[in-house]
């Protein structure tokens, strides 16, 4: 395999990952030929000498996707080397590239090309988190947890985090706000039953019960992001039902308002619908003349 040099070109990560990979101080100052070789190229390391990354931010790897990658490796080999750090003589720890590492095992490889770098635990955590955020197909919740770990465990500020991952502060903040959603909604995001667009709309709902109500409706009726946004917007807008239904939650008031609109459309006239928290209430259908009354009675199939 031809020697390759890690690019020093400034990417979307700023100097985040590049600086950590190139400038981090050695945990073990003892030099050896393999460590020196990483400065000029790639070393072939036995898979059995590499331990997994304890800071791996990704918690789930799709088995089918992993097998597909293994088959590709059997045919084409490793195209992109993994990155490791040296722990001791012939002992290495994965920094990034766990999918390639695991797929190589499935493919039956004995060794794998790798960049050897030096890093302490905090630097390794930052490298692993940033590399995964940039290269892996993480779900929105995994990205949110990775951002939170970068802030809390790597002592980064949101502005610094945005520079490292190539995102503006508002985007980073939107991901972080996902962690404030109820566990049920977070689980749906993790299982990819709810998109980032849906979740971003739900973030703006203040009451947890309203978040859960809209979430349940979105799942059951397979609502689009735009429809969920409309539900969220309706919670903050006044409607006839809001002034006639004391004691109800905003979501219940919204549902009553929508039902009132459907009844008005069905009867072709204004309909007043009232309900309380015990689901008791009344429906008033006004009429303007005897002909109008007969029309409504015909709709009700009473004449």
From TrEMBL:
CDD domains: SPO0J_N (cd16393). SMART domains: ParB. InterPro entries: Chromosome_partition/occlusion, HTH_ParB/Spo0J, ParB/RepB/Spo0J, ParB/Sulfiredoxin_sf, ParB_dimer_C, ParB_N. Residues 1-37 are annotated as: Disordered. Pfam families: HTH_ParB (PF17762), ParB_C (PF23552), ParB_N (PF02195). Residues 43-133 form the ParB-like N-terminal domain. Signal peptide: none annotated. The keyword DNA-binding applies. Keywords: Chromosome partition, DNA-binding. PANTHER family: CHROMOSOME-PARTITIONING PROTEIN PARB-RELATED. Belongs to the ParB family. This is ParB/RepB/Spo0J family partition protein. It comes from Algoriphagus sediminis. The lineage of its organism: Bacteria, Pseudomonadati, Bacteroidota, Cytophagia, Cytophagales.
